[in-house]
Write a structure and sequence with these properties.
The protein contains ten helices and nine strands. A four-stranded parallel β-sheet has the order 3-2-1-9. The protein is globular, with a radius of gyration of 16 Å. Bound molecules: 3-phosphoglyceric acid.
Length: 213
């Protein structure tokens, strides 16, 4: 898959809802109910981070839930890309970009949402054909004002800001013309997953899904 085709696909996925939940799932038994709650609340695109031993099985399990589009986050290496693809991930997300990672996504036909935090990083990815990027770490890298400033010289790139995004600051990002959606872990807090508060997660998802953009 070419970078251009990857960005067409990730634009489509980021267009599904204003928020992409960033999920850190420790316990496989919580995967399906978490996905069901988020999807029922109106958030179909789910990013499962490869940060727990269960993550690949979580992707496999969540991929069976109707109405969802499950991707793998925290892709750092070609091995991560191959494992994510084999687990059934429909897209990948990375905090940054390396030649090896981009090549692996091309080879594996995995649409990638690569991370960038600066104009030079964004320009380098644009040069390769990516025009849909993750802005990471969003708040630490200057937040909505920084992303807005990036949009003036490089309006052709759209972003999914992630990292420190909350219900409170999400509207500041979603108001920007170069932001398609935001990513965040706040929609599925660890404590609520651990306690099995599925209706609580569905409520948060519903609020997130109603944010305007
Ligand atoms: C990510 O994993 O992409 C982000 O770090 C998620 O950030 P958050 O936990 O601040 O939402």
């Amino acid at each position: 898959m070419t970078p251009r085709d990857a960005s067409i696909k990730t634009r489509e996925i980021c267009g599904l809802a204003p928020v992409v939940p960033v999920l850190v799932i420790e316990d496989l038994t919580t995967a399906v109910p978490t996905a069901e709650a988020l999807i029922a609340g109106g958030l179909p695109a789910l990013e499962v981070t490869l940060r727990t031993p269960a993550a690949l099985d979580v992707i496999k399990a969540m991929a069976t839930v109707k109405g969802g589009v499950v991707g793998a986050g925290t892709l750092l290496t070609p091995a991560d890309v191959r494992a994510a693809k084999a687990a059934g991930a429909k897209f990948g997300v990375s905090p940054g970009a390396t030649d090896a990672l981009l090549q692996a996504c091309k080879d594996e036909d995995l649409p990638l949402l690569p991370g960038a935090a600066t104009a030079s990083e964004a320009m380098a990815l644009l040069e390769r054909g990516y025009d849909m990027l993750k802005f990471f770490p969003a708040e630490a890298a200057g937040g909505a004002p920084a992303l807005k400033a990036m949009g003036a010289p490089i309006p052709q790139i759209s972003f999914c800001p992630t990292g420190g995004v909350t219900l409170k600051n999400a509207p500041d990002y979603l108001a920007l013309t170069n932001t398609l959606c935001v990513g965040g872990s706040w929609v599925a807090p660890k404590s609520m997953i651990q306690s099995g508060d599925w209706s609580g997660i569905e409520d948060i998802a519903r609020t997130a899904a109603s944010l305007s953009r």
